[in-house]
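Render RNA polymerase sigma factor SigJ in 3D.
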Amino acid sequence: MLGSATDAEDVLQESYLRWSAVDPAAVEHPRAYLVRVVTRQSLNHLRAAKARREEYVGTWLPEPIRTAPEVSEDVILNESVSMAMMLVLETLNPAERAVFVLHDVFGYTHGEIAASIGKTEVTVRQIAHRARRHVHARRRRFEPDSEATREIVQRFLLATTTGEVQSLMDLLAPDVVQVSDGGGKVSAARHPITGRAEVARYVLGVARTSVSATTRIEQATYNGMPAARSLTDGELDWLLAFEIHDGRITGLYVMRNPDKMHRADAVHPLNRGERQPWKP
């Protein structure tokens, strides 16, 4: 819902403090209460984050989360944490984002969501319809991390390190888009780059200047997507998540902002668990 592991931890901390101040015996449905508290705290954070996004230098990307391979087997969860979907969610207002995530990702009913965000069920249905239409019009299809997509990533890395222009072009979709996030703190493209030739030219230029004898590039899984990470002298330089569809790379998401990579080595299983229904 937040696109930030840091903000998510803050919300959980605030929600825990509120829960610890409540007599559990007085709460008839603890899960409903906790969902309501976490949702409303998330909404507060989303509204505060809007101003920070407007001042951000360059393109903003959500924090990369190193996900366990089994996340890719959960189609709904896998897509919901992808870079592509997180960017689409950024275009929703806070209420639309909360309703979409709670209903379409976690399966809560409109009535349950209404109790969580303090609106009527009719209003929530309208918000859900509007958010779903918005998301479906902008969502990009991609294939989750798999043996096939990892092979494509391997071929991409080989082509970029050897400078094989045609091999690289063959892997890119005609309308491929590359988005970089340096946060104004390190060198990165300030605006998205679109088109096979333009992306290939940029990628090869970066590879020539950033890869050295002490650079190690390894494959990983981030946000449920196939990815690569570069380490120089053991320090993480950048992360690159791949959006792949029909055997071609349709999106490249490059994270270079050091403030967003401090959790990049921690693996998050993102297990939803079994949701027990509750009545508001």
